[in-house]
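Handoff note, outgoing to incoming analyst
You'll be picking up this chain. Sequence as last confirmed:
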Amino acid sequence: MRLKKKEKIILALGAFGALALVGGAGFGAYQKLKPDVVVLPNITDEYREELEAELASVRQKSLENSQDVDARISMGILEQKLGRLSAAERAFKSALKINSRDYIVYMHLGILYGDMERFEDANSALRAATQLEPRDPKPFQALITLYKRHFPGRSDELENIFRAASDYTASPEIWAEYAQFLEDRGDIRQAWVYWSEVSVAEPDNKDAAAHVERLGRALGVGE
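Most recent structure output, in case you need it:
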């Protein structure tokens, strides 16, 4: 019996779906078989013991309350400090299963991926954190640091991140970084504007005041 064209397409899609399922299962099994990523942290034996004791306490809290997101976050942070990076990733991901919109978890996951040299994953996680809570400067700061260290060729995108961070967080620290970035690019007027913002927000910031004065002279401001 000859198959009609539509039936052939359905069979082909079914076969492709089956192959995809087999491939997905194989990839999942591969992920499980992969050895954990572990690094040797530069910490003393005494500090390691303190971290292990704290981790045991937090694990107990997590067992007592399986919906305690903060306990899972703490577990991830402690595992990361102990150099057990894959274990930290599992802890953070388990926190996301409880609350998939917790921006703090995404921020820590992004920082962890940076340590694991999974820079694109770090970028995605940190961007999710900034989108979920754009008013907190910490995720933006982590994203800016990631781009400075690992994406030096993406200066235009870094400027977009700086702009968003400057608009949403009202953070003098980020304004100062953005001002220096603009100054390094030769955009003196905009750098002066942002250094001035820092100086107004932090009147005792001598470094910002010096930048304002020097750039102001270069621009002829106030003459």
